[in-house]
């Protein structure tokens, strides 16, 4: 398991505790707990009642669902420094998705009770959450737009750039540990087409490829990658 010092360092890097008073930060930190997950294990399951807000300390999560035909649909990925599941905590209903660790992953959990207490007592935390939800909504609207309007290489470029979102994933460094299959799930194209897209993006100087990972050379360039006529 992660050490208390590692948890404290992760907490200090997160943006939302900075909105809290010292007493509120202390309360939140004391409530946190850590879970370790093997590759391809579930962090949360569809139809369960959410009991915590979930952050990623190490690894990578796929937020996804499976159709009645058995097809996997990946809604988004969560890189280190990102938090997810706030929507499921704000309304008393079952989760509409599942989250799976695509590689060995360490998650940090803020219990529902503490999350609710912060919403009730901290106006700055409410402001942070409104901004966070607004960015999340914008992310999903952009995904729908890209899916309908962009060709596969541009979709791959925007999908990679989205995992470096400065609000949703503020602590993601330049190395993104994601494989071609995972990226294909994220942007809705085949693994073979992802390979072609990555070759094109590397030739454009926007990424550098490695085994099981990408190094992002120009996030802004990825987010503005053109969509040539097809």
Automatic annotation (TrEMBL):
<dbReference type="InterPro" id="IPR036390">
    <property type="entry name" value="WH_DNA-bd_sf"/>
</dbReference>
<dbReference type="InterPro" id="IPR050397">
    <property type="entry name" value="Env_Response_Regulators"/>
</dbReference>
<dbReference type="InterPro" id="IPR036388">
    <property type="entry name" value="WH-like_DNA-bd_sf"/>
</dbReference>
<feature type="domain" description="Cyclic nucleotide-binding">
    <location>
        <begin position="16"/>
        <end position="136"/>
    </location>
</feature>
<dbReference type="InterPro" id="IPR000595">
    <property type="entry name" value="cNMP-bd_dom"/>
</dbReference>
<dbReference type="InterPro" id="IPR014710">
    <property type="entry name" value="RmlC-like_jellyroll"/>
</dbReference>
<dbReference type="Pfam" id="PF13545">
    <property type="entry name" value="HTH_Crp_2"/>
</dbReference>
<protein>
    <submittedName>
        <fullName>Crp/Fnr family transcriptional regulator</fullName>
    </submittedName>
</protein>
<dbReference type="InterPro" id="IPR018490">
    <property type="entry name" value="cNMP-bd_dom_sf"/>
</dbReference>
<keyword id="KW-0238">DNA-binding</keyword>
<keyword id="KW-0804">Transcription</keyword>
<dbReference type="InterPro" id="IPR012318">
    <property type="entry name" value="HTH_CRP"/>
</dbReference>
<keyword id="KW-0805">Transcription regulation</keyword>
<dbReference type="Pfam" id="PF00027">
    <property type="entry name" value="cNMP_binding"/>
</dbReference>
């Amino acid at each position: 398991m992660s050490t208390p010092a590692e948890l404290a360092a992760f907490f200090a890097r997160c943006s939302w505790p900075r909105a809290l008073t010292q007493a509120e930060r202390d309360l939140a930190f004391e409530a946190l707990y850590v879970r370790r997950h093997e590759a391809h294990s579930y962090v949360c399951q569809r139809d369960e009642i959410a009991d915590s807000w979930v952050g990623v300390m190490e690894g990578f999560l796929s937020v996804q669902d499976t159709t009645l035909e058995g097809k996997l649909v990946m809604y988004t990925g969560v890189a280190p420094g990102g938090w997810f599941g706030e929507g499921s905590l704000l309304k008393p209903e079952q989760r509409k998705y599942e989250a799976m660790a695509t590689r060995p992953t360490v998650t940090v959990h803020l219990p529902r009770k503490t999350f609710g207490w912060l919403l009730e007592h901290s106006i700055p935390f409410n402001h942070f959450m409104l901004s966070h939800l607004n960015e999340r909504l914008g992310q999903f609207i952009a995904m729908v737009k890209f899916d309908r309007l962009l060709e596969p290489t541009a979709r791959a470029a925007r999908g990679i750039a989205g995992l470096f979102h400065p609000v949703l994933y503020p602590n993601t460094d330049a190395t993104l540990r994601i494989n071609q299959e995972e990226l294909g799930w994220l942007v809705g194209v085949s693994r073979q087409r992802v390979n072609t897209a990555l070759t094109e993006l590397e030739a454009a100087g926007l990424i550098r490829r490695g085994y099981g990972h990408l190094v992002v050379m120009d996030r802004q360039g990825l987010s503005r990658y053109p969509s040539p006529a097809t």
